[in-house]
Amino acid sequence: MEKTCDVIIIGAGPAGAQAAYNFAKNGFETIILEKQSLNREKICGGGIFVQEIVEFGPLPDQVIERSIRTLRFNSPHYSRNVHLPDNMPAGVIVKRGLYDCYLQEQAAKAGARFCELASVIDINYRKNAVEVQVSTKEKTSTIKARLLIDASGWSSLVAKKSNRAMNPTDYIAAYKCWLEMSQASTNEHYGDSIEFFFNSEIIPDGYIWIFPKRDILDVGIGCLASNVQQKKINLKTALSTFIQNHPLLKKAALTHSQGGWIPCRIHPSLVYDRTLLVGDAGGISSPLHGGGIYYARYSGKWAAHYGSQYLLTNQKEHLADYESKMISELYEKDFKWDERMRPFLGDNELVDLLVNSRHKNVDRFFVDLFTGTVPHKKVYKLIIETMQEIIATENPIIQKDDKRTYIPVPSHLTIDAFHGIKPKRILLAISYCLKSNLCPAGKFSDKCIQCKLCPVSELIDLAQQHSLTHYIVTTSGSFMNYLDHNHTGFDRLLAISCSTVANKIALLVNRKYRLEGYTIILGGDVCTTEKDYSHSENGSKHSQTCLDMPIMTELLSDIAHVTAK
Ligand SMILES: Cc1cc2nc3c(=O)[nH]c(=O)nc-3n(C[C@H](O)[C@H](O)[C@H](O)COP(=O)(O)OP(=O)(O)OC[C@H]3O[C@@H](n4cnc5c(N)ncnc54)[C@H](O)[C@@H]3O)c2cc1C
Description:
Blueprint: E1 3-10, H1 14-25, E2 30-33, E3 47-48, H2 50-56, E4 66-68, E5 70-74, E6 79-83, E7 91-93, H3 96-110, E8 113-115, E9 119-125, E10 130-135, E11 140-150, H4 157-161, E12 171-180, H5 183-189, E13 193-197, E14 207-212, E15 216-224, H6 225-230, H7 235-244, E16 254-263, E17 271-272, E18 275-277, H8 293-313, H9 317-346, H10 348-356, H11 361-371, H12 376-394, H13 396-400, E19 407-408, E20 426-431, H14 456-465, E21 471-474, H15 476-486, E22 492-497, H16 499-513, E23 519-523, E24 525-526, H17 530-535, E25 546-547, H18 549-564
Parallel strand pairs: 1-2, 1-11, 2-8, 5-13, 11-18, 19-23, 20-21, 20-22, 22-23, 24-25
Antiparallel strand pairs: 3-7, 4-7, 5-6, 9-10, 10-11, 12-15, 12-16, 13-14, 14-15, 17-18
Helix pairs in contact: 1-3, 1-8, 8-9, 9-10, 9-12, 11-12, 12-16
Bound molecules: flavin-adenine dinucleotide (FAD).
């Protein structure tokens, strides 16, 4: 028999349950179809951001496995405990079975109807309705609704139907296990803390976590699926080696282990006919750390908000409003910046510097990033500024050199940094590596310095005009190679690049070659075309971090002027 309702939701995870709660609260007849049992234990670390507690309210005691006030960060050589400020609620570790059931209960109390062991096997769009085919143990039936919410997680049916398959750079691959530990022992060793390990030799551009529950340690590892593919990483083996080398973990009994996927690139379109994609189904998770529970609830809430307006008015613009909200609030404020922060946690030297630093902003950076309480756009700005100061003041080699200078854009135009001293030789490094995707010839490599198609060749011409002949356009890796072969006593390094890369270059070069004299870092994006501007740090021509051609021209002639004195 055919049933009808206002809204069908596929999937009873946090995205589906939250959407169900809000639709039901708004008075709409809401059916949630879940293919597994409702209390299934989803593959997940169960770490709940502070922001979720702030926004959606506290969780009941029976759902809380452990309250977290301390974040312990480990780099290859250092360790750092970061405490949440007293005025901030604690983060929470949960078991997903219990936690998801709690959210489902709230939605059921509001009037939503849950059907478990009911798998959606097909979706058909009709003129005024959407029909889903549902398969249960007993039968296959059809349910009709005016609106469909796809909250079916990483394997989203609608994403598949609309050919929105994602590639391996859009997924985090993760593997995790549970290790048994008595509550007393867990309390003694972990108390109110969770732990993260960053070490690119174990897991490039990813991390290992230890999230203690009451009497279980949830230990997992994850990084981009493309990394796993390209670098042939076996996550299960990497995790097992980590555990075997850990003095405490190696003694704990393994109860189970499993791998999973986290889609971490928001879909270009979150609306498909009369369907909204929420949570993992829409690729709505952090590309930096893979946390998606909060974003699942957030997107579920707003899907219900705009979906309810659509149901009341029948105007499809409201569905488009949902997508705009997700792009402007989540992509523009968080996810776009997450990708840019990867180098800080993915580079062993940078993460060592960060974790070992006494800089006052470092704790704030970690708190802001891992509690989700501050837009990541702001967190990114903080880490860029902080890292530049750390490199300038805490790098032991730079520290020895009193004359070191860091010049942020745009004050570099004065070139006071030279303090009237004529350098022997200058090495001008223009890093273009983050823009390989923009190569007009479509074949970027670290050997393509001379390619005239590249907008950077304009800069090179300029450098030559000013007799600044020692220049290199490079990724930081090939820069090192270049120096290995050509290091004949440069005493000035001028690195012009995206600030993250410039920092790294300066750090590596100073460490390795102990260059004497000044290191000048111009933190900014080299922007020579309209396309570059849109990819620059602030995505705007007016961004202070854009080094455009007029600025570059002025800069290079200033340098030439000073060096010619
Ligand atoms: C190893 C790992 C560790 C993680 N750790 C964390 C963490 O600590 N903190 C954090 O914030 N995030 C974490 N995440 C991410 C987090 O689990 C997801 O982002 C989150 O669960 C997304 O919620 P969702 O409701 O969108 O999807 P899900 O929780 O995946 O729920 C989707 C539901 O849809 C159901 N379903 C699928 N297809 C159908 C169908 N055809 N018919 C009916 N039902 C269907 C599924 O059975 C499932 O119950 C982790 C992920 C992994 C893989």
